[in-house]
Amino acid sequence: MLIKIVKTSDCHEPDVTPESLYLSRRNLLGATVAGLAVGALPGWASAEDAGRYPDVESGKPPAWFIEKLPATQWGAMTVKDEAITPFKDATHYNNFYEFGTDKGDPAANAGALKTEPWSVVVDGEVGKPGRYALEDFMKPYQLEERIYRLRCVEAWSMVIPWIGFPISALLKQVEPTSKAKFIRFETLQDPQSMPGQRSGFALIDWPYIEGLRLDEAMNPLAILAVGMYGRELPNQNGAPLRLVVPWKYGFKSIKSIVRISLVSEQPKTTWQSIAADEYGFYANVNPTVDHPRWTQARERRLPNSLFKPNVRDTQMFNGYSEEVASLYTGLDLRKNY
Ligand code: MTE
Protein backbone atom coordinates (compact mmCIF):
# COMPACT_ATOMS: atom_id res chain seq x y z
CA MET A 1 0.00 0.00 0.00
CA LEU A 2 1.27 3.47 -0.85
CA ILE A 3 1.11 6.04 1.90
CA LYS A 4 1.56 9.67 0.98
CA ILE A 5 1.86 11.74 4.10
CA VAL A 6 1.46 15.45 3.60
CA LYS A 7 2.72 17.18 6.71
CA THR A 8 4.53 20.39 7.56
CA SER A 9 7.77 18.37 7.44
CA ASP A 10 7.14 17.72 3.74
CA CYS A 11 8.95 19.82 1.19
CA HIS A 12 10.06 19.94 -2.37
CA GLU A 13 13.10 18.09 -3.63
CA PRO A 14 15.41 21.14 -3.91
CA ASP A 15 14.82 21.93 -0.21
CA VAL A 16 16.66 18.83 0.96
CA THR A 17 19.07 18.11 -1.85
CA PRO A 18 22.38 19.91 -2.13
CA GLU A 19 22.07 22.15 -5.19
CA SER A 20 24.94 20.51 -7.05
CA LEU A 21 23.34 17.11 -6.61
CA TYR A 22 19.95 18.39 -7.57
CA LEU A 23 21.29 19.99 -10.73
CA SER A 24 23.38 16.97 -11.68
CA ARG A 25 20.33 14.77 -11.18
CA ARG A 26 18.30 16.98 -13.47
CA ASN A 27 21.11 16.98 -16.03
CA LEU A 28 21.39 13.23 -15.87
CA LEU A 29 17.69 12.75 -16.27
CA GLY A 30 17.88 15.04 -19.29
CA ALA A 31 20.74 12.99 -20.66
CA THR A 32 18.74 9.82 -20.14
CA VAL A 33 15.96 11.17 -22.29
CA ALA A 34 18.55 12.06 -24.91
CA GLY A 35 19.59 8.42 -25.06
CA LEU A 36 22.43 7.97 -22.54
CA ALA A 37 23.64 4.36 -22.58
CA VAL A 38 22.91 2.61 -19.30
CA GLY A 39 26.01 0.52 -19.96
CA ALA A 40 28.15 3.60 -19.22
CA LEU A 41 27.00 3.54 -15.61
CA PRO A 42 27.91 1.21 -12.76
CA GLY A 43 26.82 -2.32 -13.66
CA TRP A 44 23.78 -2.48 -11.41
CA ALA A 45 22.27 0.96 -11.74
CA SER A 46 19.78 2.46 -14.13
CA ALA A 47 20.67 5.94 -15.32
CA GLU A 48 18.16 7.48 -12.98
CA ASP A 49 19.29 5.50 -9.91
CA ALA A 50 22.93 6.44 -10.45
CA GLY A 51 22.09 10.11 -10.89
CA ARG A 52 20.17 10.32 -7.68
CA TYR A 53 23.22 10.24 -5.39
CA PRO A 54 26.35 10.56 -7.56
CA ASP A 55 28.77 10.51 -4.60
CA VAL A 56 27.80 6.92 -3.84
CA GLU A 57 30.25 4.17 -4.66
CA SER A 58 28.85 1.45 -6.89
CA GLY A 59 28.01 -1.92 -5.44
CA LYS A 60 26.59 -5.26 -6.42
CA PRO A 61 23.15 -5.52 -4.88
CA PRO A 62 21.12 -8.72 -5.20
CA ALA A 63 18.77 -9.15 -8.16
CA TRP A 64 15.62 -8.73 -6.08
CA PHE A 65 16.76 -5.26 -5.01
CA ILE A 66 17.52 -4.06 -8.53
CA GLU A 67 14.20 -5.40 -9.75
CA LYS A 68 12.33 -3.42 -7.12
CA LEU A 69 14.13 -0.08 -7.64
CA PRO A 70 12.35 1.13 -10.81
CA ALA A 71 8.98 1.08 -9.02
CA THR A 72 10.34 2.87 -5.96
CA GLN A 73 8.42 5.92 -4.88
CA TRP A 74 11.33 8.39 -4.64
CA GLY A 75 11.20 11.17 -2.08
CA ALA A 76 7.96 9.84 -0.57
CA MET A 77 8.74 11.87 2.52
CA THR A 78 11.44 14.43 3.12
CA VAL A 79 12.70 16.91 5.71
CA LYS A 80 12.68 20.64 5.21
CA ASP A 81 15.64 22.95 4.63
CA GLU A 82 18.23 20.43 5.80
CA ALA A 83 20.95 19.03 3.56
CA ILE A 84 21.38 15.31 3.16
CA THR A 85 24.45 14.06 5.04
CA PRO A 86 27.30 13.10 2.67
CA PHE A 87 27.33 9.35 1.98
CA LYS A 88 30.89 9.12 3.26
CA ASP A 89 29.88 10.37 6.73
CA ALA A 90 26.77 8.20 6.89
CA THR A 91 28.85 5.11 6.12
CA HIS A 92 32.03 5.84 8.10
CA TYR A 93 30.68 7.19 11.38
CA ASN A 94 28.58 4.31 12.67
CA ASN A 95 27.40 2.46 15.71
CA PHE A 96 27.24 -1.29 15.14
CA TYR A 97 28.80 -2.86 18.22
CA GLU A 98 28.89 -6.30 16.63
CA PHE A 99 31.82 -4.91 14.59
CA GLY A 100 33.55 -2.90 17.31
CA THR A 101 32.91 0.14 19.48
CA ASP A 102 34.81 2.84 17.54
CA LYS A 103 32.85 4.84 14.99
CA GLY A 104 35.13 3.62 12.17
CA ASP A 105 35.02 -0.08 13.18
CA PRO A 106 31.80 -1.00 11.36
CA ALA A 107 33.11 0.31 8.01
CA ALA A 108 36.44 -1.41 8.59
CA ASN A 109 35.07 -4.77 9.75
CA ALA A 110 31.57 -5.31 8.38
CA GLY A 111 32.81 -6.45 4.97
CA ALA A 112 32.99 -9.98 6.40
CA LEU A 113 29.24 -10.06 7.02
CA LYS A 114 27.56 -12.39 4.53
CA THR A 115 24.17 -10.92 3.63
CA GLU A 116 23.32 -13.33 0.83
CA PRO A 117 21.54 -15.67 1.38
CA TRP A 118 19.60 -14.07 4.24
CA SER A 119 16.45 -15.24 5.92
CA VAL A 120 14.00 -13.59 8.27
CA VAL A 121 11.83 -15.43 10.79
CA VAL A 122 8.42 -14.00 11.64
CA ASP A 123 6.91 -15.68 14.68
CA GLY A 124 5.04 -15.29 17.95
CA GLU A 125 1.50 -13.94 18.04
CA VAL A 126 0.83 -14.01 14.30
CA GLY A 127 -1.61 -15.89 12.11
CA LYS A 128 1.05 -16.43 9.46
CA PRO A 129 4.41 -17.33 11.02
CA GLY A 130 7.29 -18.44 8.81
CA ARG A 131 10.92 -18.31 7.81
CA TYR A 132 11.41 -16.40 4.56
CA ALA A 133 14.32 -15.96 2.22
CA LEU A 134 14.82 -12.18 2.10
CA GLU A 135 13.80 -11.96 -1.56
CA ASP A 136 10.48 -13.72 -0.75
CA PHE A 137 10.03 -11.65 2.40
CA MET A 138 10.35 -8.48 0.26
CA LYS A 139 8.03 -9.54 -2.56
CA PRO A 140 4.76 -8.00 -1.31
CA TYR A 141 6.19 -4.58 -0.57
CA GLN A 142 6.39 -1.40 -2.59
CA LEU A 143 9.63 0.44 -1.82
CA GLU A 144 9.63 4.11 -0.88
CA GLU A 145 12.39 6.62 -0.31
CA ARG A 146 12.06 8.39 3.03
CA ILE A 147 14.49 11.18 3.84
CA TYR A 148 14.61 11.28 7.63
CA ARG A 149 16.62 12.88 10.39
CA LEU A 150 18.57 10.35 12.49
CA ARG A 151 19.32 11.54 16.04
CA CYS A 152 21.65 9.38 18.13
CA VAL A 153 21.29 9.36 21.92
CA GLU A 154 24.98 10.42 21.93
CA ALA A 155 23.82 13.83 20.57
CA TRP A 156 24.99 13.65 16.96
CA SER A 157 22.63 13.62 14.00
CA MET A 158 22.42 13.10 10.25
CA VAL A 159 19.85 13.30 7.44
CA ILE A 160 19.61 10.01 5.54
CA PRO A 161 17.66 9.04 2.40
CA TRP A 162 16.43 5.52 3.24
CA ILE A 163 14.73 3.05 0.94
CA GLY A 164 12.24 0.79 2.66
CA PHE A 165 8.61 -0.01 3.35
CA PRO A 166 6.26 0.70 6.26
CA ILE A 167 6.17 -1.94 9.01
CA SER A 168 2.40 -1.56 8.93
CA ALA A 169 2.47 -3.30 5.51
CA LEU A 170 4.33 -6.26 7.03
CA LEU A 171 1.91 -6.43 9.96
CA LYS A 172 -1.00 -6.56 7.53
CA GLN A 173 0.63 -9.55 5.81
CA VAL A 174 1.44 -11.59 8.92
CA GLU A 175 -1.87 -10.99 10.74
CA PRO A 176 -1.06 -10.29 14.43
CA THR A 177 -3.40 -12.06 16.87
CA SER A 178 -5.35 -10.15 19.53
CA LYS A 179 -2.58 -11.04 22.03
CA ALA A 180 0.10 -9.16 20.06
CA LYS A 181 0.93 -5.92 21.89
CA PHE A 182 4.60 -5.41 21.01
CA ILE A 183 6.99 -6.20 18.19
CA ARG A 184 10.46 -7.52 19.00
CA PHE A 185 13.42 -7.44 16.60
CA GLU A 186 16.60 -9.48 16.76
CA THR A 187 19.95 -8.98 14.98
CA LEU A 188 22.02 -11.80 13.48
CA GLN A 189 24.26 -13.65 15.91
CA ASP A 190 27.40 -14.78 14.09
CA PRO A 191 30.61 -14.46 16.12
CA GLN A 192 32.63 -15.69 13.14
CA SER A 193 31.90 -12.56 11.08
CA MET A 194 31.14 -10.22 14.00
CA PRO A 195 34.27 -9.54 16.08
CA GLY A 196 32.30 -7.65 18.74
CA GLN A 197 30.40 -10.85 19.51
CA ARG A 198 33.70 -12.70 20.06
CA SER A 199 35.08 -10.07 22.42
CA GLY A 200 35.29 -11.01 26.08
CA PHE A 201 34.86 -7.31 26.98
CA ALA A 202 31.52 -6.74 25.25
CA LEU A 203 28.84 -5.26 27.50
CA ILE A 204 26.10 -6.60 25.31
CA ASP A 205 24.41 -9.94 25.87
CA TRP A 206 24.05 -10.88 22.19
CA PRO A 207 22.00 -10.85 20.07
CA TYR A 208 21.07 -7.15 19.96
CA ILE A 209 17.33 -6.82 20.67
CA GLU A 210 14.94 -3.93 20.09
CA GLY A 211 11.21 -3.45 20.33
CA LEU A 212 8.24 -1.18 19.70
CA ARG A 213 4.69 -1.02 20.93
CA LEU A 214 2.38 -2.33 18.23
CA ASP A 215 0.75 1.07 17.67
CA GLU A 216 4.21 2.66 17.30
CA ALA A 217 5.13 0.05 14.70
CA MET A 218 1.86 0.79 12.85
CA ASN A 219 2.74 4.49 12.58
CA PRO A 220 3.36 5.31 8.90
CA LEU A 221 6.80 6.79 9.73
CA ALA A 222 8.16 3.45 11.01
CA ILE A 223 9.89 1.57 8.21
CA LEU A 224 12.05 -1.43 7.56
CA ALA A 225 14.89 -0.22 5.35
CA VAL A 226 16.72 -2.25 2.72
CA GLY A 227 18.58 0.64 1.12
CA MET A 228 19.94 4.16 1.44
CA TYR A 229 21.22 6.80 -1.02
CA GLY A 230 19.53 5.01 -3.93
CA ARG A 231 21.32 1.69 -3.38
CA GLU A 232 21.21 -1.31 -1.07
CA LEU A 233 22.28 -0.81 2.54
CA PRO A 234 26.03 -1.01 3.14
CA ASN A 235 26.85 -3.72 5.70
CA GLN A 236 27.94 -1.18 8.30
CA ASN A 237 24.51 0.48 8.11
CA GLY A 238 22.64 -2.73 8.87
CA ALA A 239 22.38 -4.72 5.63
CA PRO A 240 20.27 -6.27 4.45
CA LEU A 241 17.32 -5.20 6.66
CA ARG A 242 17.13 -2.63 9.47
CA LEU A 243 14.55 -0.74 11.42
CA VAL A 244 14.17 3.05 11.04
CA VAL A 245 12.01 4.95 13.55
CA PRO A 246 13.01 8.60 13.04
CA TRP A 247 11.30 10.07 16.13
CA LYS A 248 13.34 7.81 18.43
CA TYR A 249 17.02 7.77 19.36
CA GLY A 250 19.16 5.86 16.89
CA PHE A 251 19.72 2.84 19.13
CA LYS A 252 16.11 1.77 18.44
CA SER A 253 17.03 1.37 14.74
CA ILE A 254 18.24 -2.21 15.03
CA LYS A 255 20.44 -3.49 12.21
CA SER A 256 20.80 -6.75 10.24
CA ILE A 257 17.47 -8.17 11.43
CA VAL A 258 16.94 -11.94 11.35
CA ARG A 259 13.85 -12.32 13.56
CA ILE A 260 10.65 -10.31 13.99
CA SER A 261 8.37 -11.55 16.77
CA LEU A 262 4.94 -10.34 17.78
CA VAL A 263 4.70 -10.64 21.56
CA SER A 264 2.26 -9.89 24.37
CA GLU A 265 4.82 -8.49 26.86
CA GLN A 266 7.16 -5.52 26.47
CA PRO A 267 10.47 -7.01 25.26
CA LYS A 268 13.67 -6.49 27.23
CA THR A 269 15.82 -4.43 24.89
CA THR A 270 19.60 -4.36 24.68
CA TRP A 271 20.46 -0.89 25.99
CA GLN A 272 17.73 -1.01 28.61
CA SER A 273 19.28 -4.26 29.90
CA ILE A 274 22.72 -2.64 30.08
CA ALA A 275 21.73 0.65 31.76
CA ALA A 276 18.01 1.06 32.42
CA ASP A 277 18.53 4.43 34.13
CA GLU A 278 20.16 5.84 30.97
CA TYR A 279 18.33 4.14 28.08
CA GLY A 280 14.60 3.51 28.21
CA PHE A 281 12.27 1.36 26.14
CA TYR A 282 10.61 4.38 24.52
CA ALA A 283 13.75 6.36 23.67
CA ASN A 284 11.71 9.14 22.05
CA VAL A 285 13.89 12.09 21.06
CA ASN A 286 13.13 14.65 23.76
CA PRO A 287 15.16 17.84 24.28
CA THR A 288 13.55 18.38 27.70
CA VAL A 289 14.69 15.08 29.24
CA ASP A 290 18.44 14.92 29.53
CA HIS A 291 20.58 11.81 29.55
CA PRO A 292 21.98 11.50 33.10
CA ARG A 293 25.45 12.35 31.75
CA TRP A 294 24.75 14.98 29.04
CA THR A 295 22.14 17.36 27.69
CA GLN A 296 19.72 16.26 25.00
CA ALA A 297 18.72 19.85 24.18
CA ARG A 298 21.26 20.15 21.37
CA GLU A 299 22.95 17.99 18.78
CA ARG A 300 25.96 18.02 16.44
CA ARG A 301 24.85 17.67 12.83
CA LEU A 302 27.44 15.68 10.88
CA PRO A 303 29.77 16.45 9.23
CA ASN A 304 31.24 18.73 11.87
CA SER A 305 34.64 19.73 13.18
CA LEU A 306 36.25 21.68 15.98
CA PHE A 307 36.08 24.84 13.84
CA LYS A 308 32.60 24.10 12.47
CA PRO A 309 30.80 22.40 15.35
CA ASN A 310 27.48 22.55 13.47
CA VAL A 311 25.42 22.47 16.65
CA ARG A 312 21.65 22.87 16.47
CA ASP A 313 18.68 22.62 18.83
CA THR A 314 17.14 19.19 19.11
CA GLN A 315 13.45 19.08 18.24
CA MET A 316 10.75 17.24 20.19
CA PHE A 317 10.25 13.80 18.64
CA ASN A 318 13.13 14.78 16.32
CA GLY A 319 10.76 17.13 14.45
CA TYR A 320 8.03 14.52 13.90
CA SER A 321 5.58 15.66 16.62
CA GLU A 322 2.75 16.16 14.18
CA GLU A 323 2.97 12.54 13.09
CA VAL A 324 3.66 10.78 16.41
CA ALA A 325 2.80 12.93 19.48
CA SER A 326 -0.71 11.42 19.69
CA LEU A 327 0.85 7.98 20.36
CA TYR A 328 1.93 9.25 23.78
CA THR A 329 -1.11 11.17 24.99
CA GLY A 330 -1.35 10.78 28.77
CA LEU A 331 2.08 9.13 29.06
CA ASP A 332 4.61 10.76 31.39
CA LEU A 333 7.56 11.14 29.01
CA ARG A 334 9.90 11.98 31.88
CA LYS A 335 9.26 8.58 33.48
CA ASN A 336 8.89 6.77 30.17
CA TYR A 337 12.11 7.98 28.55
N1 MTE B 1 21.96 -2.37 15.74
C1 MTE B 1 22.78 -3.36 16.14
N2 MTE B 1 22.48 -4.62 15.82
N3 MTE B 1 23.93 -3.11 16.83
C2 MTE B 1 24.26 -1.84 17.21
O1 MTE B 1 25.30 -1.66 17.87
N4 MTE B 1 23.64 0.53 17.19
C3 MTE B 1 22.49 1.43 17.24
C4 MTE B 1 21.62 1.30 15.97
N5 MTE B 1 21.42 -0.08 15.62
C5 MTE B 1 23.39 -0.78 16.83
C6 MTE B 1 22.24 -1.09 16.06
C7 MTE B 1 22.85 2.82 17.42
S1 MTE B 1 23.43 3.22 18.98
C8 MTE B 1 22.68 3.77 16.46
S2 MTE B 1 22.93 5.42 16.81
C9 MTE B 1 22.33 3.40 15.09
O2 MTE B 1 22.25 1.99 14.90
C10 MTE B 1 23.39 3.97 14.15
O3 MTE B 1 23.04 3.74 12.83
P1 MTE B 1 24.10 4.18 11.69
O4 MTE B 1 25.42 3.58 12.07
O5 MTE B 1 23.55 3.61 10.42
O6 MTE B 1 24.12 5.67 11.69
TrEMBL record:
Cofactor note: Binds 1 Mo-molybdopterin (Mo-MPT) cofactor per subunit.
Enzyme Commission number(s) of this protein: 1.8.5.-
Binding site for Mo-molybdopterin: N94, Y97, E98, C152, T187, N237, R242, S253, I254, K255
One of the GO biological process terms: protein repair
Cofactor needs: Mo-molybdopterin
Keywords annotated in UniProt: Metal-binding, Molybdenum, Oxidoreductase, Signal
Oxidoreductase molybdopterin-binding domain: residues covered: 114-271
UniProt modification remark: Predicted to be exported by the Tat system. The position of the signal peptide cleavage has not been experimentally proven.
GO MF terms held by the record: metal ion binding; molybdopterin cofactor binding; oxidoreductase activity, acting on a sulfur group of donors, quinone or similar compound as acceptor
Coiled-coil ranges from the UniProt annotation: none
Keyword RNA-binding on entry: no
Catalysed reactions, semicolon-separated: L-methionyl-[protein] + a quinone + H2O = L-methionyl-(S)-S-oxide-[protein] + a quinol; L-methionyl-[protein] + a quinone + H2O = L-methionyl-(R)-S-oxide-[protein] + a quinol
Pfam family, one: Oxidored_molyb
Top-level EC class: oxidoreductase
Domain of life: Bacteria
PROSITE patterns per UniProt: TAT
Xref: SUPFAM superfamilies: Oxidoreductase molybdopterin-binding domain
Protein purpose: Part of the MsrPQ system that repairs oxidized periplasmic proteins containing methionine sulfoxide residues (Met-O), using respiratory chain electrons. Thus protects these proteins from oxidative-stress damage caused by reactive species of oxygen and chlorine generated by the host defense mechanisms. MsrPQ is essential for the maintenance of envelope integrity under bleach stress, rescuing a wide series of structurally unrelated periplasmic proteins from methionine oxidation.
UniProt record similarity statement: Belongs to the MsrP family.
NCBIfam families per UniProt: PRK05363.1 (NF003767)
Subunit structure: Heterodimer of a catalytic subunit (MsrP) and a heme-binding subunit (MsrQ).
Matches recorded under HAMAP family: MsrP
Name of protein: Protein-methionine-sulfoxide reductase catalytic subunit MsrP
Organism field: Pseudomonas vancouverensis
Gene: msrP
